[in-house]
Structure formats: C-alpha cells, structure tokens
From TrEMBL:
Domain of life: Bacteria
Composition skew (Basic and acidic residues), residue ranges: 13-28
Domain HTH araC/xylS-type: 156-253
CDD domains linked to this entry: cupin_NimR-like_N
Disordered as annotated region, ranges: 1-33
Keywords, alphabetical: Transcription, Transcription regulation
Species the sequence originates in: Streptomyces andamanensis
Name under which the protein is recorded: AraC family transcriptional regulator
InterPro entries: Cupin_2 (IPR013096), Homeodomain-like_sf (IPR009057), HTH_AraC (IPR018060), RmlC-like_jellyroll (IPR014710), RmlC_Cupin_sf (IPR011051)
Length: 257
C-alpha cells in the first residue's frame, strides 16, 4: 500500500521545497497557485495528473502548471526537489503537464536552488538561476513517459496484479479469470478508458518499472528479465522507443545524487 505524506515537506527559500520520500510514499492530491518544476535528485518519481501518470527518472524534470490537481509517488527512496515558476517565466513552458529532458546545466541550477547552499543566495541570484532552468527546459522536447491510470475498479485490480509482478506472462484472458471479468469486457475498457490496448499498456508499465530498477543500480540483463523480457534485444528496442535512448546509455548517463 502507498504511504501518504500529509506535510508540505522541507521548504528552503522563496517557496522552493525538498522532500525526502520513502519507497511508495505518496503525497495527497493538491494544487499550487504557481506552476512548478519537479526534479528527482535521487530515485524516481511519478506524477499523476488528470488520469495520466508520468514517470520522472533522474534525467527528466516534470512541469505542473498552476492550479492543476496532481499528486506524486516515489519509486525507491527519492529526493524530490520543487522549484516554483512565476507566471512571466511559465509562458516559456508547456501549457499542460509535461516531462522534459533535463540538461546538465538545468540540473545544476535546480540543485543550487534547492540544495543546502540555497538559503545564503540573494533573491536576485535565485531569480537568475530560475531563468537558467527555464531557458534550458523551455526548448526541451516533451518526453512520452506517461501511463494511463485506470479508474474502473476492474482495471485497477488488473493493474495492481501487473504492478506486483510485471514479468508475468499471463494473457488478458487469464488475468480476466483471476479478477472475474471477461476478456472482451477488459479489452473494451482499455480502449474506452485508457485509449490504448492491453499489450501496449503492459509494455509501458514494464518500461516504467525498468526505469526504476536501472536508476536503483540494476544491470540491463537483470532488469530485462525482472520486467518480463526473455530476449534482451526486445527489451532494448521497447525501452528505446519509449525513453529515447538505450537502457545501457540511460544507466551510464544517470547523474550522481
């Protein structure tokens, strides 16, 4: 079961925040008057907005516009950093929630705003750092690291089974028998509620789990088998199609916390 955090986390200066989240810890649904950027200095986060869940590994930053209901969840122990963005700067970012590729410069500026040395900086210096972050993230491509989040209780139960054992080879018909729902009904629910088929959704879920494992230090072959791929080449192809780089390159490029 997820752990729910009710407090606002550690606030640093000028509204920036840092949260040290335990594995599976989840924040309540909330919104902010300002848009904000979310960066995992360590670990992997997910952000859920309007029935969609985005995965945020350590080389990505999530953007949540102002007044948008959302919640976060940690996958592994996670150091979550939050930087708020003024309306004048927010116009350079997407008008909807998105996950953006993070450059090395953007990462360092995000850490400088939220790290232990953040408080001594002047307001002007902090404003300049925010401009650097937005200048770097604004042109960055949006990453398709999202997973439709089921609302129907039958799909939620199926998702729970798959999350607990992403390597299972059970077919949709076999999973349906476990939860007492016919295959045709489940297929229809996937199309109507999540605008995708079961096979594609399962691949997305497995890649999300792979991101968590790779960030935690697991090897590519170990991750492939644990996430349901018997053929490493198929895993590499599926991962690359969704993440934009091979799992080996992703693992090598992970920043040090």
């Amino acid at each position: 079961m997820p752990i729910f955090r009710q407090d606002a986390g550690g606030q640093t200066h000028d509204g920036e925040q840092t949260h040290d989240l335990e594995h599976r810890e989840r924040t309540p649904v909330h919104r902010h008057a300002q848009g904000h950027l979310i960066y995992p200095a360590r670990g992997v986060l997910s952000a859920s907005v309007s029935g969609q869940t985005w995965i945020i590994p350590a080389n990505r930053t999530a953007w949540i516009p102002a007044h948008v209901d959302h919640y976060h969840r940690a996958h592994g122990r996670t150091d979550m950093r939050v930087v708020f963005v003024t309306a004048s700067l927010a116009v350079q970012l997407p008008d909807r929630a998105a996950v953006l590729s993070t450059t090395a410069l953007a990462r360092e500026a995000l850490l400088a705003l939220t790290g232990p040395d953040a408080v001594p900086r002047s307001r002007e210096a902090r404003d300049r750092l925010r401009h650097v972050v937005v200048d770097e993230l604004g042109p960055a491509p949006e990453e398709p690291l999202h997973l439709p989040e089921p609302q129907d209780p039958r799909l939620r139960e199926l998702a729970r089974i798959m999350e607990e054992d992403p390597a299972t080879t059970a077919t949709l018909a076999e999973l349906g028998r476990l939860i007492g729902v016919g295959e045709r009904t489940l297929s229809r629910l996937f199309r109507e509620e999540m605008s995708t088929g079961f096979t594609r959704w399962r691949t997305q879920l497995r890649v999300h789990r792979a991101l968590v494992m790779l960030t935690g230090g697991a090897g590519v072959l170990e991750t492939a088998h644990a996430c349901g791929w018997s053929n490493p080449s198929t895993f590499i192809n599926s991962f690359t199609a969704l993440v934009g780089q091979t799992p080996g390159r992703y693992r090598r490029n992970l920043p040090q916390a």
